[in-house]
């Protein structure tokens, strides 16, 4: 949470701000190159997402707040319940990844708004992404590609790339500093990019969002995590959701003039005011490999009227690889 770990976030923000020139221009990377590189680096698991492979579909309901309505004309904030397709996942490309270790968890959402409008987003359990530009992300993936002889990444190559691109280490440092999440419903999920919220007067307030569990974050000691074993998160979610106890506040940290709005590795300063745009409550969880999320790719450029993208190069760069990734797994027979 922003409030629980300010020193670390301050360090991340300062480190990134000093490393990245403002307004860095960034070209798009061919989406097929990204997908080929994911497969070369992490292996190919047919039918599964190349990132966030181990996942489960759920559905929920979102109710927007008066603060949401004041900031944006989006119908998401009308105050009437809106249906949401949810997908929780574990970071990485391995559909059998252990879920009792430290590291990334994801919450992807599709708000099904009136008149067929949709809002998609893919949120992660860190305030920063693992690269600042698409080219840097591709370079990082290349540096992690296993050597065919040793079946492991070349440590000298990994180090050389990270030394030249220190932003790629920020996210790993954050995860290393956090305990193992006890539940998909007990961890914060950040949007990481800035987005603009456009109100009825036409003025735009930029900010960065975080979904925070209503009942607080919940974590495990390494010993407890070991006892639970490598596959407990889905069943834990299935137990908790029917009790109505998996719910998140959709909070927006408001940017001020001069704040960086184009960087997925630079959080807003800790002291920026946070407002609650509404509450998401989970209502049911699908059976394994079932549910509405299976055939969806959560493209964060699919925004409703009243919400606009920032100039973050990582944001626009996600649309094409997600579409190509969806195409590949649909033709293979989409799972999870
Ligand atoms: C150029 C940069 C990026 C590339 C190439 C990329 C690529 C991908 C791909 C191929 C998938 C699987 C899509 C599918 O099969 O439906 C995916 C999933 C995901 N990505 Fe990214 N990604 C990028 C940046 C980011 C960033 C900055 C975030 C931070 C919020 C992020 C968060 C996620 C999440 C949460 C998922 C899982 C969504 C789900 O459950 O379907 N990605 N990414």
Walk me through the topology:
Layout: H1 6-19, H2 31-42, E1 54-64, H3 66-71, E2 82-90, E3 105-112, E4 118-124, H4 134-143, H5 155-164, H6 170-176, E5 180-181, E6 189-190, E7 195-198, E8 204-213, E9 219-220, H7 222-228, H8 233-240, E10 247-254, E11 274-285, E12 307-309, H9 313-316, H10 319-332
Antiparallel strand pairs: 1-2, 1-11, 2-3, 3-4, 5-9, 6-8, 7-8, 7-12, 8-10, 10-11
Helix pairs in contact: 2-10
The site of protoporphyrin IX containing FE has 28 residues, from β2, β3, β4, α4 and α10.
Write a compact overview of the structure shown.
The protein has 336 residues and is an alpha+beta fold. The protein is 27% helix and 23% strand.
What's the number of extended β-strand segments? 12
Please give the share of residues in helix: 25-40%
State the end-to-end distance: 29 Å
CATH third-tier fold name: Catalase HpII,  Chain A, domain 1
What is the H/E order? Answer: HHEHEEEHHHEEEEEHHEEEHH
Shape: globular
Structural class: alpha+beta
Number of helices: 10
Strand content: 15-25%
Each distinct ligand: protoporphyrin IX containing FE
Task: Determine the CATH superfamily.
Answer: Catalase core domain
CATH architectural grouping: Beta Barrel
Q: Uncertain spans, ≥5 residues at pLDDT below 50?
A: 1-25
Oligomer: single chain
Whole-angstrom Rg: 19 Å
CATH class: Mainly Beta
Number of domains: 1
Question: What is the averaged pLDDT score?
Answer: 93
Major beta-sheet overview: 10 strands, antiparallel
């Amino acid at each position: 949470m922003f409030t629980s770990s300010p020193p670390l976030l301050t360090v991340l923000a300062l480190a990134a701000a000093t490393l990245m020139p403002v307004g860095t221009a960034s070209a798009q990377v061919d989406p097929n190159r990204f997908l080929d590189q994911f497969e070369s680096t992490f292996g190919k698991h047919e039918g599964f997402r190349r990132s966030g492979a181990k996942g489960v579909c759920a559905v929920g309901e979102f109710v927007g707040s008066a603060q949401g309505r004041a900031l944006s004309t989006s119908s998401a904030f009308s105050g009437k319940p809106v249906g949401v397709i949810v997908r929780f996942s574990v970071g990485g490309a391995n559909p059998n990844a252990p879920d009792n270790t430290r590291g990334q968890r994801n919450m992807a959402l599709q708000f099904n708004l009136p008149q067929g409008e949709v809002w998609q987003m893919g949120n992660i359990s860190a305030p920063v992404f693992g690269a600042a530009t698409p080219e840097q992300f591709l370079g990082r993936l290349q540096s992690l590609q296993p050597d065919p002889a040793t079946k492991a990444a070349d440590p000298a190559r990994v180090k050389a790339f990270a030394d030249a691109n220190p932003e790629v280490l920020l996210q790993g440092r954050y995860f290393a500093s956090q305990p193992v999440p006890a539940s998909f419903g007990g961890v914060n999920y950040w949007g990481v990019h800035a987005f603009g919220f456009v109100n009825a007067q036409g003025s735009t307030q930029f900010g960065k969002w975080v979904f925070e569990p209503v009942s607080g974050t919940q974590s495990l000691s390494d010993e407890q995590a070991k006892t639970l074993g490598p596959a407990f998160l889905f069943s834990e979610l299935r137990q908790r959701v029917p009790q109505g106890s998996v719910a998140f506040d959709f909070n927006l940290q408001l940017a001020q003039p001069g704040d960086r709005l184009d960087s997925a590795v630079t959080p807003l300063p800790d002291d920026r005011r946070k407002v609650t745009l509404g509450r998401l409550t989970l209502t049911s969880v699908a059976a394994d490999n079932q549910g509405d999320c299976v055939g969806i790719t959560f493209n964060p450029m699919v925004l409703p009227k009243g919400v606009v993208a920032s100039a973050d190069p990582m944001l626009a760069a996600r649309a094409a690889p997600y579409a190509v990734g969806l195409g590949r797994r649909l033709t293979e027979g989409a799972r999870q």
